Amino acid sequence: MKVIKPMMLGLLWKTYRRNGHRLSVTGTVCFPFATPDRPLTEQAMWPILAAECPEETVWDAGIPKDRGELLLSAHGYAYGGIPVETRRISVQVGSLRKEIALYGDRLWHKKNGEWIKSRPEPFCSMPIVYTRSFGGKDYPKNPTGKGFSLDPEESPVSLPNIESPLFPTISPETDTPPAGLGPLDLAWAERQSRTGQYQPGEIGTEPPELPANADWTLYNQAQSDQWLSGFWTGGESYLLEGLHPEFDRQSGRLPGIRVRAFATLDASRNRTFVEIPMHPETVWLFPHLEIGVVIHRGSMAIETDDASEVASLLLSAEDPGENRPESHYLAYRNRRDQRSPEDLSLYGDGPLLPLRLEDDPQANIGNVQYHMAHQSDEIGQRTRRILSKKLEKAGKSTQPPPAGAASSPIGEAQSSMEEKLRELRKELENPFSETPFQPGQFKTEELKKQMDEKIRDALSRIPDNALSKANLTREGPLSPKASMAPLKKDLENALSSTALKERLMSIDGSVPETDRTTVPLRPANGAFEAISGQVEDKLSALSDKIDTLVRSVHFFAPPPEDRPNAGRGRQKVLEQMKSSRNFRKWSLRGADLSGLDLSKCDFSESDLIGCDFSESDLTGSLFQGAWASHGRFLQTNLSGSKWDGANAGHSEMKGVRAIGASFQKTVLSGTTFEDCLLDNSRFDGADLSNISISRTRAKGCSFPGARFMRIEGALSPSSSQSDGQSERTLFRDVDFSGSNLEKSLFMKCDFLAVDFSGCQLPGATFLECCGPSTTFKRAILTKGVFAQSVQFQGSSFGSADLSGANLRGVDLSGSDFRGAILLGTDGSGGNWQHTNLSGVRAIGARFQKTDLRWVDGRWGDFRQAVFLKADLRFANFSGSSLYKGCVTEAQIDDSTLFDQALLGKTTITPGESK
Fold first, then answer.
1. Do 656 and 632 form a contact (C-beta atoms < 8 A)?
2. SS3 607
3. Residue pLDDT, tens place only, 138-167
């Protein structure tokens, strides 16, 4: 089921039975007390719930309730933080009001046959939980509490810390209702009494509904004095006392937001768009965090027990009285279904939120057009190029508006980087321009001059229009003189923490002896620390800016072919090699360095854009931080070379031998790898987007966290926009065997004859990938995710470990899983026809609605596996263990073989014939 919702709302759905099958839809609104009508994101809500809700307690059952209720996860606090022996807590939300009394630790002492209470110990804060309320292990209303005892010899006995003023504790033997504000456990007496009992004939062949005499308030978790007679309306006021460490009284109101839900039925039901009536049902408050959650709920009748006829759910929020037409949401659903790449606002949440929030940044996290219109000049070069391509695809002009026309936010966002470079230059030239100290306090001018000297020297190497010459288009080459690497290094040398402190320590010597008695030491030290922090902060910010430019240089076009310049660069290198192999920080842009022995040379932080290293020996050479984009590496030996932090994007690597090379954090975006040998190389943190790779071996490599994906719009600077470049990444005849690809992402990738044998792929994701006949033998794919139309038919997973992997909906027909580990693997809804599952360990695996026809499952371990509504015709499970398995409503007939299979405690109920 597809879910469409804004990030400010949470959505859960669940099927249940009440007068037939029904689908329950839950929408959550997590709100701060200060701004109740501007919800927090769902991502912010879940960590709060995980930390605050009582352990071993279900936060919400997901089943509609017949009446609303109020729940709190709270602590009681002494007023002003002064310890007290007792404290009265009060809660009022709308028409609900409740009080409880908190006491410090007390004991019952038995004296002359009577129970005597000790004086409470003072306390400052206390969690309001049922372990501190009246109860005990033999008290069914609260087995976790304290104070209850039937042993007349037991003394002393702890008293509860939490009581209701209406029902004070009289003695350990008294039946006293436990007091609290949170949820009651389903197994406790108060809720268990509402379950009812089945009567003869109520239990059929399928899981039954609740007994006819059950009380539906079973699903109300709070005590009955926290229930409503109906439901919340939204906007109710609240007053809380004693529940915050700083504020003794908290007042406010609940959100007035109205949640709406729509279901789209599947194609067999004409994709009918149906609204599900919703109402605010449950309110959770976390007073000490100043946060609350309102749970909105609704339900609809369905035909199946798993809501398989519902194709998608759409959730939205409105302010009272807005009442957008159903057609508004239908149109948005259609936009999301079409997934047009030209629609830059496609994933913006604005259309699903109240009108007043449409321009809120949180509502536009996925709206590319919004961000381009609202970001400052810090927008990166890559983002600008992608936007430009998208706008051109959409037929929108990127030219400035005519004179007198209203300015466009997008046009402003696409303004030239000349201003950005001027500001950066100004910022570098005046690193102390904002210092708050007066020069009369001590001699900072000399210090400033010393520190500026190296910066200005570095700046002199960069022309004002260095990057503006590129004009932010594919056709614009970088200026041959443009080089930020020397600037970056000199900045680091000039403003390093050590150098800075050495210079600032000279302040003491710069103050004349006659002045030392009048200059307070503490202000001087304060000035020292302030300037030190200011400069280091500025260095960090500038370094970030420069790093962004360094990692984006491959998006500029390479310099035009210039044979004389290429020859001059070659001659410079040959001359230098007569005495040294150090080319650190050299500018060799476009040089012809082919056919040379450049082994063990140092090209770190050099400008090598467009260089030709074909047939050269670069073994053991250093390229850390170098600019080497658009390079030619034909039949080049890169074994043992180090490229960490370099940019070699859009390079041509054909026939390259790079055994044991290091490409950690290297930009390789858009690079072509053909007939390469990359064994035992490291690509940790490398940018591998938009690469093309074929006939390449990468055995024993390290790719942790790598992202192999096609970034739409990020074309090569030298390619045209209309060249029909594929939006998918192709891996043809690539050997990754034995490599570490932990938590890697393969998005929109096609695999042809790719070998992942023995790879470490835990947590890896294959999104919209196609890889028939791919090899995963002995691979570790634990908790891997194969999502959205993934096809791996005819692939080999022999002896692989796919424990906990998500294979839902995957086409694995004809694949080989012999000896594989499938513990808890979910293969529901997939096509597993003709797969070989012999000898697998598939304990707890799920094959719900999976097509398992003609499967060879002999001698497999399928204990506790679920085959609900699976198609098992012509399947062979002879000799296998299906102990405690679930084969409910499955398609089985005489062609399904269970010869010599272990079927103890296995539920087998044939489904309806198709």
1. no
2. strand
3. 899 999 999 998 876 777 889 999 999 999
